[in-house]
């Protein structure tokens, strides 16, 4: 579950940290416990990114729907 600090992360911050987590996991050399902690953090960051992207999609859909409604009113 993501915390308040994670919710304050921008999409770019979460994405960049997620990239670093993946890089560390792929590099290996961590203990099982460290790997699990990294994986859990990666899941949290992926959720933050997903929420940002879903929000952006909703805003785009709303803007496109509004634009479509304006065109119908004009026509």
Summary, kept brief:
This protein has 75 residues and is mainly α. The chain is built from three helices and no strands.
What do you see in this structure?
The chain has 75 residues and is mainly α. The protein is 85% helix and 0% strand. The radius of gyration is 18 Å and the shape is rod-shaped.
Order of helices and strands: HHH
- Percent strand equals under 5%
The average pLDDT value, as a whole number, equals 91
Task: Output the number of helix runs.
Answer: 3
The major sheet is characterized as: none
Low-confidence stretches: none
Give the proportion of residues in helices: over 70%
What oligomerization state is this entry in?
Answer: single chain
Topology, number of strands: 0
